[in-house]
Amino acid sequence: MSRRVVVTGLGGVCATGANVAEFWANAKKGYCGISRRTLTAEEYSLTLPIAPIDGFETRIEGLGRDMTRADRFTQLAIAAADEAIADAGVDFASGLGARTAAIIGTGIGGQTTIEQGYVGMMRHGRRPHPLSILKFIPNAPSSWMSIRYGLNGPAFAISSACASGAHSIGVAADLIRAGAADAALAGASEAIMTYGALETWKAMHILSDELCRPFSKNRKGLVIGEGAGVLVLEDHAAAKRRGAKIYAELGGFGMNADGKDMINPAVEGAAGAMKLALSGVGSVDPAAVYINAHGTGTLLNDPTETKAIRATFGADADKVVVSSTKSMHGHLLGAAGAIEAIAALKALHEGVVPPTINYDEPDPACDLDYCPNEARARRIDLVISNSFAFGGLNAVLAFRRV
Questions:
Q1: Selected catalytic residue, list 236, 294, 329, 349
Q2: Pick from 347, 351, 326: which is nearest to 336 by CA?
Q3: 329 belongs to the catalytic site
Q4: pLDDT of residue 315
Q5: How far is the C-alpha of 130 from the C-alpha of 316, rounded, in Å?
Q6: What is the pLDDT of residues 86-97, one digit of tens each?
Q7: Terminal CA-to-CA distance of the chain, rounded, Å?
Q8: Using CA atoms, how far apart are residues 311 and 146, in angstroms rounded to an integer?
Q9: What are the chain's domains?
Q10: Is 222 helix (H, G, I), strand (E, B) or coil?
Q11: pTM (2 decimals)?
Q12: Pairing of strands 155-156, 100-105
């Protein structure tokens, strides 16, 4: 019999919060962490709106000596994991560590290390740092977690662009359901605030030159952010035995591929992943559903996701409340699904829908209730977190009350 999987701990850091409490308080306020910044590399510079984490450098030494030598995306992941473990009150030394997984996704990996290394080699003839590979490999956060916390269960990275975080959480839950682990640290991290990385994103012509305005008619594109989110997942029966605080049950997980295009999203794929996730939670009252949308603010994503929600809920789609927190913290790329899962879980826990801020003008192609500009108290029994990635890769998480 498949085991039930619950969330017992949350940890996160992004432009709008140094921890989950700050992140959630700012989400309810509709606080925007986006601002115009200038990134440089030697004589090159680029000025654009981004959502960086200010002041994180002061926390790095406190993470331990090993982390002072790690790439920023690993440092962010460890900060989030430390918080999630403390929140869960879980003790891996009691024997649970032998059966705990660490599944941490990323879209790109150690971009800071890569760029600094290439600039040093090609501009100044410096040799790369001897630990460069260990710093930038995508599995660095999951490996460091297994070492730091004494975890001996499955540990690996998932890299599926913007679906990495949701895929990691869903796959980690599947490992627990299947009996391959009893608990897991699951989530994702991304840190690409470098000149070279942002120039490549700019070249795609999908970045906004101002704010991120998901679902609004005057939206101009996405805004890149950075951050990490980590969840503690446990077998429900074990969590109850130890008296753990339970945020929600991960009742459904849907993943598939559009199989059509690297860039243009498909309604059928997104709707199919949502229906797969909903198949795991049984009957649901649409009036008590909140969807944390992928909601990038691009011309293609937002109407496609709107149509996918309508294809999933039919005539009941108008009863569902939708919002995109990317309007506040930016698009965290591989980590988006992790930090947005935290927003969805906090919404479920408190009965508050975070707003889609910067929403100015309705778009006829985006005709759902997007909770514009102000948070809303609401009965919520089920939250859905959507993640739709380049390459047509879809991952949807459905959390319900226990």
A1: 294
A2: 326
A3: no
A4: 95
A5: 57
A6: 999 999 998 999
A7: 18
A8: 41
A9: 5-241 (3.40.47.10), 252-400 (3.40.47.10)
A10: strand
A11: 0.98
A12: parallel
